[in-house]
Structures are given as C-alpha cells and as structure tokens.
Amino acid sequence: EALRANPQAHRPDASLIDTLSGNASVKDKLMAMAQLADAGSAVAAAVPELTAMLNTAHQALRTSAVYTLAAIAEPAVEPLCELLERAGVRVSDGAESPKFDDRWITLHDAAYALGAIGAPALGPLQRLLNSPHEWTRMNAAFALGEMDSAASSAVPTLEAALRDESHYVIRIAASSLGTIQKTVASGKLVQLLDRVLGDVAGARD
C-alpha cells in the first residue's frame, strides 16, 4: 500500500543519476548504474547521462552503460537511435572515423544496447536501415542480428539491405540474416552469392 501511495518510494534517488555526470570514481559510477539497472524503465531520466558514456568513457563504464540502457529498455530506444543517426552524419562528414576495414569492424556501443533491448527497438532499427548514412545502416543491421530469432520480423528489411550500395552494410546484413533465421534467409543469401560470383565473372571477362 505504501508503494502505491508513493510511487517514488521504490525508485533510486536522483543522486544516482548525478553520480554518472559528476566526478565520481569509476567504481562509484558502476555501483550507481547497477542500482539504476535494477529500476528498469522507472529511471528513464538517466538515459542522457548513460548515452553520453557510450564510445567515450572508460571501457568498464561503457559496458555497464550498455547493459543499464538495455534494462531501461523502451525509453532508451529513440535516444539510442538518434545517437546512431548523429554518428552516421559525423562519419559521412568526415568529422569522425570509426574503426572498420575488410577484416574487422568495431560497431557503435549504441548498436549493442539496441540489440540487447530487443523487441521495442525492432521498428526504429528497421527505419534506420533506410538512413542516408552508411555508418548508421551498418550499426542498425548489426543490432538486429544481435537479437537472434527475436528479430525474425525484420528479415524482409534485412533482405532488402543485401542490395545496399555499401558492401559493409551487405556484409553485416548477411551475417545478421544468418543469425536470425537460417532457413528463411538462405534463399536470399544464395541469390546474393550468385550475384557476387556473377560480378566477379563479369570483371574477369
């Protein structure tokens, strides 16, 4: 009865959120995030401080922020998607240079958080696959694959991404399709392979 009468009674104190943006130690910030994660969506107010840590803070803080955002879930989806869109703009403009080449791609922390959130992020991530920015599309395709079979409804959108102008997006979309639903995606992946082999044969001629 007391909790119903006072909904704030079981929520973490606002000082936990202040800890994240202040000069507290890494240990104190990790402890604050552990308590915030326990509160889930009730601490949506912490999302700005948590997203600010992604790709910038100490590795332990970044990892904890990812999992705390995943625990907050739906309230974190749009801010994370906006973060990926802004990152895509910066990369397209040359203001930021993420680490990726033909052998290794280091994706944005926000993609891991969205993948961990799961179902609430499905629609927004599929919309991001239509972004004009390659880096944003790469991260969206990756995040969907992180959801495994829970992202089965995104299979048609990922199949469409197999015709993306970026071979990085195609690569990640193909990997995600293989992770999500091997049997459903196999036909499109075979078509992709046939197209690639055809292009190679044409180049040799």
Average pLDDT figure: 86
Shape: globular
> What is the CA–CA distance across the termini?
78 Å
- The secondary-structure class comes to mainly alpha
The largest sheet is: none
Could you state the order of secondary-structure elements as H and E? Answer: HHHHHHHHHHHH
Low-confidence stretches: 1-10
DSSP summary, beta strand count: 0
β-strand amount: under 5%
Number of helices: 12
The Cα radius of gyration reads 19 Å
**Fraction of helical residues:** 55-70%
Describe the protein's architecture and organization.
Helix content is 68%, strand content 0%. The relative contact order is 0.08. With 205 residues, it is an all-alpha fold. α2 packs across α3 and α8 runs antiparallel to α9. The longest helix is centred in the last third of the chain and has 23 residues. The protein is globular and about 55 Å long.
List keywords for this structure.
single chain; 205 residues; mainly alpha; 12 helices; globular
